[in-house]
Amino acid sequence: MKFISDPNFSHSLFKDVVRIDYQSDMPPYLINDYGYTYLMFCYGDFEAVDHKGNLVPVPQKLVKGTGDYFSITAHKDNIWITLEMPNHVLYNITGIPSNRSRNVLYDLESYVDPTVLDSLYDALRNKESISGIIETVDEHLSHYYSKWGRPLKSTPIVEYIYQEKGLITLADLQVQFPYSERTLERMFNKEVGCSPYRFICLVRFNYVIREIENNPEVLISDLTAQYNYYDHSHFEKDFQKFLGQSVSNYKNEFNPLLTQALARKFVKADDA
């Protein structure tokens, strides 16, 4: 696979942009939720299977928000372009309560002029730099940005959870923001797509995974202590919740370094 990205990327709406060129057939690989909304442009035939094992159609131009893990199978010469946006953008695009949008791959043609989308889709195919991709997307979609990026009540709360790396409680949210637990629950289900507690756990889990990816030699005891897990079994429960399997069974050809690090630092420690 050929990855194209820019670590110094900055944009008023998009948080990150990645292009993947598949240079050979790929076995199914697991993708977990990161709590963001994504615009995706897919070239070639992709197979997606949701967390329940159901086949999910993959539109050529799609938008998706928070949800559960799923697996993707890609083939040689396929192209996948992903633009990451803040979580609340999905609700602004669709107008559909986000708890009804979990695990839904929305066809972008339902929300954007199909003629504009077709032009964008054709123009993006041969853009092999992040600057070229974003210039093309801006040219076609910039007049949507003010509506899509409009902050919601949940927006500063989500930003705070990320800022704190998920190392907070529901009680902390009620101290920082003028909402009851019940109001937070309703707000997050409508605008985010899950409960505030699940979102906090999701953010913390993803920071742990990033730590493992960036430092494969990290000690499990240090990592669980740093991220306020009670013990290894507590982390295992989150792993099962967000990736659908145990640490010992995890295998992802898409991210072999993470697989190897988990096998070395977690599985063998249990066997010792």
TrEMBL record:
| Source superkingdom | Bacteria
Keyword DNA-binding on entry: yes
Matching Gene3D superfamilies: Homeodomain-like
Q: Which UniProt keywords apply?
A: DNA-binding
Task: Point out the coiled-coil segments of this chain.
Answer: none
Any single GO molecular-function term of the entry would be: sequence-specific DNA binding
Sequence ranges assigned to domain HTH araC/xylS-type in this UniProt record: 152-253
**One matching Pfam family:** HTH_18
Checking PANTHER family in the record gives: ARAC-FAMILY TRANSCRIPTIONAL REGULATOR (PTHR43280), HTH-TYPE TRANSCRIPTIONAL REGULATOR EXSA (PTHR43280:SF2)
Name recorded for this polypeptide: Transcriptional regulator, AraC family
Instruction: Identify the species of origin.
Output: Nonlabens marinus S1-08
